[in-house]
Design goal:
heterodimer, A: Gyrase A, domain 2, Cyclophilin, eight-stranded mixed sheet, four-stranded antiparallel sheet, globular, B: 338 residues, 2 domains, 23 strands, 16% helix, 27% strand
């Protein structure tokens, strides 16, 4: 897979593998991200993986786009083979209608009943393709074509923290109360972002996520638990 | 009682900012940091701080506060508005050392969207995720994760500045002429005519301008093949164009990832100038290559280093007005600490 090198000003370089949301592209981006991290190239400030490209933020006083592109293309063939990386997580999600205001709409579009939606979502193997939109907000790839539905025509101006939503064969978990345009089918009571934690986000690009259906009572218990440690409670071997 | 600045007026939108929060964009955490980093760095240098120290970033209309420490050395850079200390004006671009009880204010200004106020020794705030920059949308950094509010007490790290004279510096050369833009990464999503127009015609900064970005208005830019791309990374200065065809230039608090085509990215040497842009200001843009933008940035850094090197003691040949001002201030000027 030969990537394109695209300028994003003089402080960021984009290495683009394609134009679609596709597991093979996500894997290629994640592999290059690991290779760039391992190579410790001078002048690289940070990297941001997304669905189909890796953005490399650099210090133009320490390197240049041309130098970086040369270094990266030199390491690309050897070190970007997809490999199994990332941690495994099992996150609780309550698919109770009280937490899923869009279950009916998703049901109407997909032809699945609310219970079947929960089973399909909790049965999917997700990969964290990227985080963004909000600090700690994961974009999870892994739903089948039944969930290839467009975003809401009118985004909600405010939704509840922990809302689990679907669109475009993807799922997101909104870590904090915010506006949002995806279809909410449940709620995950696990805190996904904590500025006092290192790193602040529970999930990282390349991690693997599955959901576990819980009832409203368990959702309440987890949400109210003082000192709930999401790493201890949700990290899988 | 702790050494602090006590704010009875917060200003329109005053926040703590340093160089920004790096390494966490992969987790969706914006960089933030000063809109005009050159002003913040010079203000810090004038008061003897490390250039990366956190400053007060002031937008449009400034705060009013009282010095509740033995002595404080301040410098304001980025607007000619300067400081008002017990009613007397102290010019921007120099430090001033004042004592307990002095009343300091920054009025309204229109020569820039922002300016920076540094205090010798910096603020006694713990970094959050490696930075003291405020990201108000996320509710973290700075003072309680928000802009300053009336009644805030902003603790200082030192009760008094180190001995030494006040210092002044030359004005920062921000450059003029069109804002330089490196086309890409999605310039191929636009009709060629539209791209040509973007670089030929003026665009005006609208009232929708904040730390996230500047919405511009001007000739409509036409996408071919839609305006929703598969989301990818965003760098500061990216010019994204949603379905309206009106560009948005993204600034320090921009999101890390976005789904609109980006026709280009402002050269990093022009980001301080961009951060200073106010609603109503008319901008022109010119395309340059990455290599040219990198050279511009290196030249800017060399020139800025020279400007820092020319910082020297304040020497005033006093006229009647200055004498009057000096007298007004002398009541609060502290003796140099031992």
């Amino acid at each position: 897979m030969t990537p394109r090198y695209l300028p994003a000003g003089d402080a960021a370089l984009v290495v683009e593998f394609g134009a679609a949301i596709d597991p093979a592209l996500i894997a290629a981006v994640q592999a290059l991200d690991r290779a760039v991290a391992a190579a410790r190239l001078p002048g690289v400030v940070e990297t941001v993986p997304s669905f189909r490209s890796l953005m490399i933020h650099y210090d133009p006083l320490a390197t240049s786009a041309a130098e970086l592109a040369a270094s990266i293309s030199a390491l690309a063939p050897a070190d970007t083979a997809p490999e199994s990386a990332g941690r495994n997580w099992l996150l609780p999600c309550c698919y109770d209608p009280a937490f899923g205001p869009d279950l009916d709409h998703v049901s109407a579009v997909t032809g699945l009943g609310p219970a079947e939606i929960a089973v399909a979502h909790a049965g999917a193997d997700f990969t964290v393709a990227m985080l963004g939109f909000l600090p700690g907000c994961p974009f999870l790839a892994g739903l089948d074509q039944r969930f290839d539905l467009p975003r809401r025509t009118t985004p909600r101006t405010r939704l509840t923290a922990g809302s689990v939503a679907v669109a475009l064969r993807l799922s997101v978990i909104y870590p904090t109360a915010s506006p949002g345009g995806w279809h909410i089918i449940g709620n995950c009571p696990v805190p996904l972002f904590d500025p006092g934690r290192t790193p602040p986000a529970l999930l990282a690009p390349g991690d693997h996520v599955r959901f576990r259906a819980i009832d409203a009572a368990e959702h309440g218990r987890i949400g109210a638990a003082a000192g709930f440690d999401p790493v201890r409670e949700c990290r899988q071997a | 009682m702790s050494d602090c600045l006590v704010f009875d007026r917060p200003g329109l939108a005053t926040s703590i900012q340093d160089r920004g929060r790096f390494g966490l964009q992969r987790y969706g955490v914006p960089v933030s940091g000063a809109l005009d980093p050159l002003a913040a760095r010079l203000a810090n240098a004038l008061v003897g701080n490390d250039q990366d120290e956190a400053v007060l970033e002031i937008l449009a209309f400034g705060p009013r506060f009282t010095i509740e420490t033995a002595s404080a050395r301040l410098a304001l850079v980025g607007s000619e508005v300067g400081l008002t200390i017990n009613g007397a004006t102290v010019a921007a671009g120099r430090s001033v050392t004042i004592g307990r009880g002095a009343r300091v204010s920054v009025g309204g200004f229109i020569d820039s969207a922002c300016c920076a106020l540094a205090v010798a020794g910096g603020f006694a705030l713990d970094p959050v995720m490696g930075s003291r920059s405020t990201y108000a949308r996320g509710g973290f950094g700075g003072l309680h994760g928000r802009n300053l509010a009336a009644g805030d007490r902003l603790a200082l790290r030192r009760p008094a500045p180190p001995p030494g004279p006040d210092r002044r510096g030359d004005a920062i050369a921000y450059g003029d002429g069109p804002i330089r833009v490196v086309p890409g990464p999605q310039e191929d999503w636009f009709e060629p005519d539209s791209l040509a127009r973007f670089f030929a015609d003026p665009y005006e900064v609208t009232a929708e301008a904040d730390r996230m970005g500047l919405r511009l208005t001007g000739p409509k830019l036409v996408h071919h093949g839609g305006f929703n791309i598969v989301s990818d990374g965003i760098s500061t200065g990216a010019i994204q164009v949603p379905g309206s065809g009106q560009p948005i230039v993204l600034l320090a608090d921009h999101q890390t990832i976005g789904g609109y085509p980006k026709l280009g990215t402002v050269a990093s040497a022009d980001l301080p100038r961009l951060g200073r842009c106010r609603p109503g200001q008319v901008l022109r843009f010119a395309p340059i290559t990455v290599a040219a933008a990198e050279s511009l940035r290196r030249a800017q850094e060399t020139a800025f280093g020279a400007l820092i090197g020319r910082i020297g003691p304040v020497t005033v040949i006093p006229g009647p007005e200055q004498l009057l001002a000096a007298n007004l201030i002398s009541g609060v000027v502290s003796a140099e600490p031992p």
